Amino acid sequence: MYDPPPEPPSESDCCGTGCADCVFDVYDRECARWRRRRRIGEGDRLRRDLLSATTHKPYRIVSARPLGDDVHAYRFAATPESVGRLPVAYTQHVHIRLADGLSRPYTPVALGDDDCSFDVLIKAYLGGRFTGRLLEMTVGDVVAVRGPSGGVRHDGYDSIVMFGGGTGVAAFVGLIGSLLDNDKCETLLRLHYLCKTLDGVLMRKELAEYAAYWNCSVHLYLTREHDWSQCSKSFWYNENITEGRISQDGMAEIIDRQQNLRTLWLICGNDEFNQYFFNSLQNHNIKQDHIQLLDNTVKSLKIS
Ligand SMILES: Cc1cc2nc3c(=O)[nH]c(=O)nc-3n(C[C@H](O)[C@H](O)[C@H](O)COP(=O)(O)OP(=O)(O)OC[C@H]3O[C@@H](n4cnc5c(N)ncnc54)[C@H](O)[C@@H]3O)c2cc1C
Q: How far is the CA of 25 from the centre of ligand 1 (A)?
């Protein structure tokens, strides 16, 4: 049983800019959770000693490979090598910090079953301070990681509809996989994933496998595929792919299909993407309580 008390953050773990969710607030919350687990005798075999929401732990780069469209798949694992699974729920993110102190949040798409590893998809931006430096690092190099943070609660819903754009799909891949792995889960899952081109579709194989389940549908939208007739020849048999974006009529249809279902609406993409889908849902009278934004953005959302 690995459930040591949360570690207090050091002064250097706090950036000192008055974050809404300061690492010291996180620490207080984690302590309350830990006390509750102890009270009700709920321990588990997760390696809570290797990932802390309050202090950074060393992780090494196990692998790094390009996936196209400036996106790279990275695997990080606790160092030294350790056995067990990291205490991360899908849709939660971790903060990865480089040697110079620069830190950014990323959302694991997969967790190693027994090697304390996690996989993330990272899009490199032109002039990106973090991604530029990470790309220069190699397998074996060590970063610091703390987390997990955020995440969505989805219990009590009949259906989850997800809108993902580009690497935003990372937030949903693990969630869908873990729900489908659970034989008892009857939640209807509908993923709408917008991507520029077919080559840029991330985790295409996994998504095609998910779409074969009775309770999961995956709809891809290719927004900048120039040679549609050529591209459509390489679609797989169970792929549902549309040219262009989701129009307002398309949104109306998607929303209509959810009538009589208690639905959770999740959005994860860039700023414009998030604002578009958030507005569309609000225009169709979806209550804000049922919409969650998995914040992957640089600007804050305008809420009307
Ligand atoms: C909760 C959360 C989870 C995240 N999960 C992931 C993830 O799983 N994979 C992933 O690739 N990224 C993810 N991000 C974004 C990530 O944290 C960084 O912001 C991103 O990698 C860019 O960092 P940078 O320092 O290289 O770019 P910066 O130096 O901060 O920015 C460089 C340029 O890129 C633009 N830019 C930066 N970030 C974005 C963005 N997200 N969308 C559009 N333009 C942008 C900036 O406007 C700027 O012009 C997540 C963000 C949040 C808040």
A: 24
